[in-house]
Amino acid sequence: MAHTPSAAMGVSISRDELEKRLPYPILPNRPELVELYWRCWELAARMIRHGTPDNGFAPTYMDAAFGGNIFQWDTCFIAAFARYTREFLPVLPALDNFYGRQEPDGYIAREYRWENGAQLWAKRSGDSINPPLFAWAEWQCYRLHADAERLRRVWSHLDAYYGYLQSWHRLPNGLYWITDMGSGMDNTPRYGAGWIDLTCQQALNARMMAHIARELGDDEAAERYEAEHRSLRSSINTIMWDDEAGFYWDVDMAGLPMKAKTVASFWAILAEVASPDQVRRLVAHLQDPPTFWRAHPFPTLATDHHFYKPHGDYWLGAVWAPTNYMIIKGLRQAGHADFGREAALRHIEAIERVYRATGTVWENYRADEDAPGIPARPDFVGWTGCGPIALLLEEVIGVEVDAPSRTIRWSLREDGRFGVRRLPFGASTLDLEVDERGTVAVHCEMECTLDIDGTRGKGQWRLPPGNHRVHLE
């Protein structure tokens, strides 16, 4: 019997069941965002698929919500929010689908067919790869669950993939090349030889590989990847930074700038390529209303570019969840957390208004009105869940979990009572709630350090397993 994607879908999971199993946000002052949060989980649960003998995919895995084929960078961004489900929604098998198809030279294709598991694009073409974010996705999952055994298992796949990109996508000047389709920004108006996003993504890749190697006790590999990061940072800042414009550009084969202002340049923040002063100047672009700071931030093409389309037209100006997540997490990492939180709220609230008007969540959005982009797929969770799920927990509620060090960092910038229950923390969960008076209630199943900062007060406590109440200074 022929298998079809719809026939291989998992059954719908009720909201009651989801609410019993997943992190439960406490935001009585923002009920509309909580409703959106749960709706996104419902849509995500519909994207559980089952592999077939023909395609050889995992028995159960999370799909990208895009027609049945599996996509590399979609899956990595889905992991950014699906990691909060533990094993309830199978995002790690979705990553394993790609590792299982890795070729001996390290190559992993950007897309594999649902029907038979075959790759779509010619190997070694610019269209054949995707942003190399596997190590970043694995590190984010590890920080939540502290599963060192998984890191050991996937290390060889990550290391080999890095080597493949070095061999086939690195230019003599140290930069990396790709195409618009390969970059994931399908119709972006960029035609350079050295691409700022792929080069920064490879720098991020090196940074994550160094972290993973240190965690696995491989100091030699860690030092090798740290040297890789330093080398890429030097090449990017020497060749691609425009000090007059305060911006990074793609470059042609002669190293001359190709001046299309897109969100691709902001990968330099998350990749720790930009200096504090360069970050400040990049943030000025993000805060600039004529270019990126729109009603719904951040359009993927600056709105003053002559190719910008108000209705989005995919990557000619639409707002996309993965690039917004990248920007906002980079802002927090680089010391601009308040602006990142403001952008996260603006992003989630815009998605919620469109959800209220249309009844669903979309693949992309318009920057200047409450409407989906044209074109945009509905019921897209998919990576659109990065905002209403991951950013709600991480930026609005403000919780950051570092399970390997048994540390919870909580940035209190919301008013009134709020918190979260059943937040994954290693092999256990924890509950956090602050009331109007600044008293924090904690339930933890293992010893942990609670580190609180923000507008409501600050403090640090070492807590044994059990129930606790602490008071902010």
From TrEMBL:
- Annotated Mannosylglycerate hydrolase MGH1-like glycoside hydrolase domain ranges read 70-372
Name the Gene3D superfamilies for this protein: 1.50.10.10
What's an example GO BP annotation here?
protein N-linked glycosylation
Thylakoid is among the record's keywords: no
Q: InterPro entries recorded for this chain?
A: 6-hairpin_glycosidase_sf (IPR008928), 6hp_glycosidase-like_sf (IPR012341), Glycoside_hydrolase_63 (IPR004888), MGH1-like_GH (IPR054491)
The portions of this protein that span the membrane are none
Entry protein name: GH63 / GH37 / GH78
Q: Which organism is it from?
A: uncultured Chloroflexia bacterium
